[in-house]
Amino acid sequence: MPADFPIFIDIRQKQILIFGAGTIAARRMGILLAHGAKVKAAAPQINEAVWQLKEAYPGQLGISQRAYRMGEIPAGTAFVLAATDSPEVNACICQECRQKQIPVNNASDSSQCDFYFPAIAEHGSLAAGIVSTDGNHKKVAAFRKKLQQLMQECSLTEAE
């Protein structure tokens, strides 16, 4: 099987839908908002961190406290994150996205993902995304931390 192709895209002002508002959704939502995306989130229960993001990014985050409704994903959506607590609902979201040719990430089933969220190391003008081809999240987290430290050390050296 070929390796996934790493790519960086400009998501400023792009419309992204997230179904679910728990811990994983909140973490990914924060990264997307920090990179300028316009995010709409829908979930019956909203994590406190999501409400805090709404305050931190006024005008960028819309929240609907309700469940996903089949057929609601509009054409032209940049991509969708299915992060509900129901694998069945996430699969339905993926199915709708595939029918509409919208890239989707299913937080509960990597086999249904069109793309993955990398661990991100950023410092100044440097940015790197890290994923593991074997799904080892601990290895990715450890490497991201070391890379972040290296980025900081390199920027100190460059300034001298």
Which tags fit this structure?
4 helices; globular; five-stranded parallel sheet; 160 residues; alpha/beta; two-stranded antiparallel ribbon
How does this model look, in words?
By secondary structure, the chain is α/β, with parallel strands linked by helices. The chain contains four helices and seven strands; from the N terminus they run E-H-E-H-E-E-H-E-E-E-H. Strands 3-2-1-4-5 form a five-stranded parallel sheet, with helices on both faces. It has a two-stranded antiparallel ribbon with strand order 6-7. The mean pLDDT is 92.
Write out the strand line-up for the largest beta sheet, numbering strands in chain order: 3-2-1-4-5
Mean pLDDT, all residues:
92
Strand fraction equals: 15-25%
Q: Total strand count, please?
A: 7
Distance between the termini: 45 Å
- Helix count equals 4
Pattern of helices and strands: EHEHEEHEEEH
Brief overview, please?
The chain is an alpha/beta fold.
List the helices and strands and how they pair.
Elements: E1 15-19, H1 23-34, E2 38-42, H2 48-56, E3 61-64, E4 79-82, H3 87-99, E5 104-106, E6 119-123, E7 126-130, H4 137-159
